[in-house]
Amino acid sequence: MLRRLYQWVIDLSERPSAPWALVGISFAESSFFPVPPDVMLVPMCIARPKLAWWYAGICTLASVVGGLFGYAIGALLYESVGLFLIQLYGYGEKVEAFSEAYQHYGHWIILIKGLTPIPYKVVTITSGFAHYSLFWFVVLSVITRGLRFFMVAGLLYWIGPSARTFIEERLGLVTLIFAVVLVGGIVGSLYLF
Questions:
Q1: Which of 4, 13, 8 is nearest to 156 (CA)?
Q2: In sequence order, which residues have a C-beta less than 8 Å from that of residue 126 and are 6 or more positions away?
Q3: Where is mean pLDDT largest: 35-39, 70-74, 122-126?
Q4: Which helix (H) or strand (E) holds 166?
Q5: pLDDT (tens digit, 9 = 90+) per residue, 113-155?
Q6: Rounded to whole angstroms, how far apart are CA atoms 41 and 9?
Q7: Could you write out the DSSP letters of every residue in 35-92?
Q8: How is residue 81 annotated by DSSP?
Q9: How far apart are CA 167 and CA 173, in angstroms?
Q10: Under the phi-then-psi rule, with left for phi > 0, alpha for psi from -120 to 50, and beta for the rest, what region is 33?
């Protein structure tokens, strides 16, 4: 089943509509959706390594725009939508402390958390709730999300076909590692947040 799912994602990543799917998932992940864009970015870069930089750019731009939507949820709709999403991801009790930390460490919070596998939507919604500078939010989001996605794309560009071979030969192990990193990042951020 895992192999069929992998092949389905690879086939999807080779379709002309794949960049639109990448835009959708990158936007949604930064504001409300739990699945990171890597599930599309990685297979798209593996399927077409020459377009890896383009895909990273699409992913970055859509993630920052989605982050602005998350910021708006935090700034304008926190009591209804924002609080629901924050509680859904298990951060409800920590938002006040996180909001206070923004007063001293806002830049570092966005830069560091934007690179990790924790849900970026928590950062975007809380940034809006804390009324963090919109200018700096956008600048830092471009830096951190761009760095994250361009590092993934660069790695896959340079190792290209050998990455695909490695993943296909060790699909179970790669899936397990990805799941552990994702879940570990989420659980770890619950304690560090």
A1: 13
A2: 74, 86, 91, 95, 98, 99, 102
A3: 70-74
A4: helix 134-169
A5: 787 766 788 888 888 988 899 999 999 999 999 999 999 899 8
A6: 10
A7: S-THHHHHHHHHH-GGGHHHHHHHHHHHHHHHHHHHHHHHHHSIIIIIHHHHHHTT-G
A8: I
A9: 8
A10: beta
- Which one-letter DSSP state was computed for residue 154? H
Query: How many other C-beta atoms can be found within 10 angstroms of the C-beta atom of residue 192?
Result: 12
CA distance 58 to 19: 8
In the block, tokens 């923004």 appear at 102
| Torsion angle in degrees (nearest 10) through CA of 58, 31, 64, 41 | -30
In the structure encoding, which two tokens stand for residue 38, read together? 């890597």
Quote the CA–CA distance of 32 and 85 in Å, as a whole number: 7
Q: What is the pTM of this model?
A: 0.78
Rounded to whole angstroms, how far apart are CA atoms 48 and 69? 30
Q: How far apart are CA 65 and CA 61, in angstroms?
A: 6
User: What is the Cα–Cα distance from 43 to 119, expressed in whole angstroms?
Assistant: 20
Q: Determine the length of the chain.
A: 193
Structure-token pair, residue 49: 């390594």
